[in-house]
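Hello,

Our lab assistant flagged a job as stuck in the queue for most of the afternoon. It eventually completed. Since we weren't sure the result was trustworthy after the delay, we are filing this so someone can double-check. Below is the sequence as submitted and the structure that was eventually returned. Let us know if re-running is recommended.
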Amino acid sequence: MQKADESPLTIDEIATRLKCSRGWVQLSLDAGCPTNADGRVSVRDFMIFQLTNIKEIRALAGLPELETKGTAEDLRPNVKAILTTQLEWLQIRSTRSAVKTAAKLVCDRINAFS
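-- returned structure --
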């Protein structure tokens, strides 16, 4: 990651940088993602938190458990779990039917590769 990814950002700045919803960022913070005294977190720390705490994020979102294969040494297998969780969360939380439909379509395609 670049140095810019280590600069603490607000919830809105992270959502903009990662092209995700503000609610998704807030869900991760509510699940325990550490912030600094100003309530900011770096993109790097945010992503590492998600990779290592996807089970807690899913539980807080009300989603069923999902098998993850990442280890402390290699968290890359958890990327699919994060994407799947975000897409399932969008299907539940979005108020726009087009977003729900698109999230389901992408989620189904990701799961078809399993």
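-- support follow-up --
The delay was a queue issue, not a problem with the job. The result is valid. The longest helix spans residues 78-93. Residues 3-112 form one domain.
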